[in-house]
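Progress report, Aim 2. The chain analyzed during this reporting quarter is listed below.
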Amino acid sequence: MNWNWLSSIVTIFMLQMVYLAALSIGAALYLSGGLTLPSDFLGLVPLGVPWFGALGAVLISLGGIFKHAGVRAKNAGPDPDDWDRSYWPWHWSRPLVGANLGIVSFIIFQSGLLAVGSTPAPTGATAPQNLLYYVIAFVVGYREESFRELIKRVADVILRPGELPTPPPATTPVTTAPPPATTTTPATTAAPPPP
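Predicted structure tokens for the chain:
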């Protein structure tokens, strides 16, 4: 059986549109009260965190499709296909990877391991309580490669043994001689000649 259809740009586009529709329908049902979930469905993680992570992941996949579809339209010559079919597992797994990275980012930021540099909104503010975490989850889902690099750097800081600081190179002290003193001799008056 020929499995090339799994990796074609048309199949990947249709799949991402199904993911986007499912995310949109799920959000509409949840927000309208048609879908109720227990408040502790994901433990301490707000439900919007994995949702925004999945949304960011689907949108970056669609962005890649649009970019390559544009290249195909420009290069209508002998080989218009610059679509790399080997990325099909990446596209198929986007919502799951984005949702899970959104959850991981929430846990990391909630634990204080990484700080955002903003102060939390005061109680009673009009912004939703977890808005910052929703934004972080979306960005992480959208730019998961950057997030993985950040995690690698954090892991290196935690897991690598501390390196001893290297002493500064030895230098010979440079002494400068003080500038020569200038002395002024008072003008002497000649003594009058003896009489």
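Residues 48-74 form the longest helix (27 residues). The mean pLDDT is 77. These observations will guide the mutagenesis work planned for the next reporting period.
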